[in-house]
């Protein structure tokens, strides 16, 4: 695709930030229970993409992704300080659902809204031509980028070497979600 025809990440992100499909015309289930606030970051120059689930409650309040203990853990895993992590020219953060999906009955985050990925994901990634690595965090991002793999998330993460070693660019690395809710899994799967 020529540079003239390729959508710019920033232009697509601005249109996504104005999107209200999950509230005004939901395709799957009831409308989003709060005002949509799409949260993502990136630039056409980003070389690393964090493909995540959806913003949590703190990100929804601040408008900034990973502003909670899971972000602290993720930055530690990556060896990045906050300045490098939030440098949109270097790091894109593209969740499966760009808005906080609300809480379920147990107090956990609901799954990302499917409308968001279906409408925006391909166009956002077209605007990221320099990506070298996509970190796919959690089952929804792994399903999108890798397809449904036998054995679910655990087998997918265990197979990270083979996945990372696949030919082509960008390379893909599956990770579990860095949430405290996964502490038990992380202890069983060091």
Description:
- Helix content is 38%, strand content 9%.
- The chain has a four-stranded parallel β-sheet.
- The protein has 190 residues and is α/β, with parallel strands linked by helices.
- The radius of gyration is 16 Å and the shape is globular.
- It has helices at residues 9-17, 21-24, 57-62, 69-78, 82-85, 114-126, 138-146, 152-158, 160-164, 183-188, and strands spanning 48-51, 91-93, 133-137, 171-175.
- The model has no long low-confidence stretch (mean pLDDT 92).
- The longest helix is centred in the middle third of the chain and has 13 residues, at 114-126.
Walk me through the topology.
Layout: H1 9-17, H2 21-24, E1 48-51, H3 57-62, H4 69-78, H5 82-85, E2 91-93, H6 114-126, E3 133-137, H7 138-146, H8 152-158, H9 160-164, E4 171-175, H10 183-188
Parallel strand pairs: 1-2, 1-3, 3-4
List keywords for this structure.
single chain, 190 residues, alpha/beta, four-stranded parallel sheet
